[in-house]
Amino acid sequence: MSRVCELTGKRAMVGNNVSHAMNKTKRKFSVNLVKKRFYIPEEDRWVTLRVSTAALKTINKNGIAAVLKQAKANGFVK
């Protein structure tokens, strides 16, 4: 399973490790994902999502219903 946030679509980025001698080697910046259960009162059910911690902060601020609606508009949730 790829490390992609199910609500925001965030995925790993590629960059460089840079040494003191300015040698560059490729590396990957992984997304900080957590598996979390959310209760959706409109549908009266629980859903389990793998979301980034940034998305968790957005859910805490705006609510799960608003974030799911925005994710559907952006095409991340069916």
Structure description:
It is elongated, with a radius of gyration of 16 Å. The chain contains two helices and four strands. α1 crosses α2. The chain has 78 residues and is of the alpha+beta class. The protein has helices at 53-62, 64-74; strands at residues 13-18, 24-29, 33-40, 45-52. β3 and β4 (45-52) form a beta hairpin. The chain has a two-stranded antiparallel ribbon. Strands 3-4 form a two-stranded antiparallel sheet. 27% of the residues lie in helices and 36% in strands. It has one domain: Ribosomal Protein L24e, Chain: T. One of its GO terms (molecular function) is structural constituent of ribosome.
Strand content: 35-45%
Query: Which parts are unreliable, with pLDDT below 50 for 5 consecutive residues or more?
Result: none
Q: Could you give the count of β-strands?
A: 4
CATH H level, superfamily name: Ribosomal protein L28/L24
Q: In one word, what is the shape?
A: elongated
Keywords: Ribonucleoprotein, Ribosomal protein
GO cellular component, one term: ribosome
GO molecular function: structural constituent of ribosome
Protein name: Large ribosomal subunit protein bL28
